Amino acid sequence: MTKARTVYLSIGSNLGQKRNNLQKAVFLIGERIGEIIAISHIYNTPALGFDSDDFFNACVELKSALPPEEVLDKILAIEKHLGRERRGETGYQSRNIDLDIIYYDKEVMETERLTLPHPRMTERKFVLKPLADIAPQFYHPVVNKDTRNLLQETRDKSEITKLPIKPYKDRVALFSDVQFLAIEGNIGAGKTSLATKISEDFNAKLILERFAENPFLPNFYKDKARYAFPLEMSFLADRYQQYMDDTNQFDLFKNFMVSDYDIFKSLIFAKVTLQKDEFDLYRKIFNFMYKEVKKPKIYVYLYQTTERLLEQIKNRGRDYEQSIDSVYLEKINRGYLDFLKTYPQQNQLIIDVSDLDFVNSPKDYKTILGRITDFALAQRD
After folding, report:
1. Which of 260, 319, 338, 355 is catalytic?
2. pLDDT digit string, tens, across residues 13-40
C-alpha cells in the first residue's frame, strides 16, 4: 500500500464568485486527490505582474497517496472542471481558479512539467502568508528555511489582507454549519430516500415522518370526507411532538439534522382535505404550534411531475396509496408552491427532479448534492 504524503497546494481566484470558487476547488481536491488536513484563512491580495481585480488566495494541506505528476494531472483536471482552460495562456491573466503544488513532502524534482518545491513560492507573499497559517515551521528543502522566515525575508511587499473566513474542509463541515436541512415534496417525490442518503453519507441525525403509524391514513384514502379532520389533527399532533422532541435535542455524535418533512406540510395538506370551517379551526391550532417549532435553515422542495409521482407511488406498492389520483396530487403541489411564495427566498431551494433518479444513479445524486451545496454556500455571502 502506497504511503500517504503531505502535500501543500496554493489556491486562488479573481473572477466571479471568488470565495465559492475556492470552496468548490477544496471540495474537489478532497474528493479526487486526498484527505484535507488543514486550510488557511482566505487572503485578499493584489494581482501580481498585471492589472486586474484582487485575488482571493488560500493554502491547503492534504494527505495523498498519489505521486507528484498524478497530483498535477488532478489539479489541472479540477481547474478544467471549474471552467478554466490553460491552453494558449501567455503571461499573467485573470482566472476563476488557479491551483499550484507548493510542496510535495520534502521532494525536490524538476521535470518538463513540474518543479518541486514551486520555483517562485519564495517570491510570492500571497503564497507564504496563507501557508504560514497551516505550516509555519515547514522547512523548504532547498533553502532550508521555514515558512515564517521565508515570509519575513521575501522581497514581495504587497499589501495582503486576512479575511475573517476560511473554506470548509468538506461538505460535512458545510452541512454542519447549516445545522438543519428539510427535504420536502409531494407524495412519492423521493424526499425520504434523499434525506436518508444524505444522513448516511454525511453523518446527520435523520428525522423521518412517522406516516406508517397513523391509524387514520388507510381509512382516509377510502373515505376522505369522513376521516379528513381526525387524520389532519392526528398528523399535526404527531409532527409537533416529534419536531419538538427531535429538533430541540442535538445528537453529539451527529453533525447536523436532516428531515424528510417540515411541519408546515400539515397546513398545506389540511387546506386541500378539510372543509372551510374545519380548516379555520385547524389553522388556529396550527399557528399556535408553528411558532414553537424549529425552522430549517434550508428548505429543499423536490418537484416532480404528476405522472412521475403516480408512477413512483404505484412502484412502492403501499396499498392505501393506490387510490390517490392526479387531481389530489396537483392540489397538494399547488399548495406547496403557494406556501413557498410566502417562505423566505434565502432559505428555499426548489429542485426539479422529474428527470433525475437519485436513488439508482450516483450521477443524479451528485447533481442534487451540488445544487444543495451551491445554495448553502450562497447563503454565506
Report:
1. 260
2. 988 889 999 999 999 999 999 999 999 9
pTM of the model: 0.84
Residue type at position 23: Q
Has 338 been annotated as catalytic?
Answer: no
- Grid cell locating 274: 378539510
Cβ-Cβ contacts under 8 Å for 121 (sequence gap 6 or more): 10, 102, 127, 128, 131, 150
Domains delineated in the chain: 5-162 (3.30.70.560), 171-379 (3.40.50.300)
Burial class from Cβ neighbours inside 10 Å (0-12, 13-18, 19+) for residue 46 reads middle
The 10s digit of each residue's pLDDT in 272-315 is 899 999 999 999 999 999 999 999 999 999 999 888 888 888 88
What interhelical angle do 362-379 and 191-202 show, nearest 10?
Answer: 80
Instruction: Annotate 265-290 with DSSP letters as a single string.
Output: HHHHHHHHHS-HHHHHHHHHHHHHHH
